[in-house]
Amino acid sequence: MKKSQIILIVVVIVLVGIIYSLPRVVVDNAEESENIGQNDAVATDSVLQAHDARVSDGEKDAVSSLIAKLKIADSKEKFTIFADSLAGIYRKSGIYDSAAYYLGEAAAQYPTVDNMEKAGNAYYEAFGFAMSQEKMAVLAEETRSYLNKVLEDQPERLDLKTKVAMTHVSSTNPMQGIMMLREVLEEDPTNQEALFNMGVLSMQSGQYKRAVERFEELIGYYPENVQGQFYLGVSYLESNQKNKAKKQFQLVQDMTEDPMILSSVENYMGQL
């Protein structure tokens, strides 16, 4: 499989994960602590400048102002608000690792389940867009450090367990992640994320007939899942089921206006 196709797969995994990333629990605030921004929780100026340098010129004043406020925040609530605002700017700019960094700072200072989940989800998003194995490994570890803490409190959160599983798949012990996904499916056989990710993993390992089975099962439960429908077409094509692939790609063309998916469909249709 071409590198560009693998990148698209990773991006789609992240997009699917975003659907389930909204926090569902509100934890009562802990007692305030004075001068939160004046201790070691805020990184050195050189680190902050490295984040700031990657922001568009139109956002730099806002970022500088928020960083200044973060340093002198006199309560955990204010620290969290400023960190959330910074993360929002970076995420809007597509700088996902910086967004995760500030949400991680908020979680370190104000370790509620809600903040842990926000940080973990942000690091997972950054992990999905990382282009080097070294960076992926670092972001995967950060994802697990936060989301596993949420799972300790909420072990029923299969959406988070699926994300942790996917970080293991890219590690030196991928079977640990695959086993976790299987555990999710044992508990919830119709779990959308787990079915999708198992299909993607089958594709990445060249097991296209197995991928067909996974994606057929997925769209049987979730026919509106455009990404699943698309990758079913790819799996048909790669397993030499060209008539099914053509019909599947035509179905996808009728389902979406997403230019990335439609462009990929056109490329694959050209191979038929």
Automatic annotation (TrEMBL):
Keyword match Metal-binding: no
SUPFAM superfamilies noted in UniProt: TPR-like
Matching InterPro entries: CellSynth/LPSAsmb/PSIAsmb, TPR-like_helical_dom_sf, TPR_rpt
One Pfam assignment: TPR_19
Source organism, top-level taxon: Bacteria
Alphabetically ordered keywords of this record: Repeat, TPR repeat
TPR repeats: from-to residues: 192-225
Alphabetized PROSITE patterns for the sequence: TPR
Classification via Gene3D superfamilies: Tetratricopeptide repeat domain
Matches recorded under PANTHER family: LIPOPOLYSACCHARIDE ASSEMBLY PROTEIN B, TPR REPEAT-CONTAINING PROTEIN PA4667
Name recorded for this polypeptide: Tetratricopeptide repeat-containing protein
Species this chain originates from: Echinicola pacifica
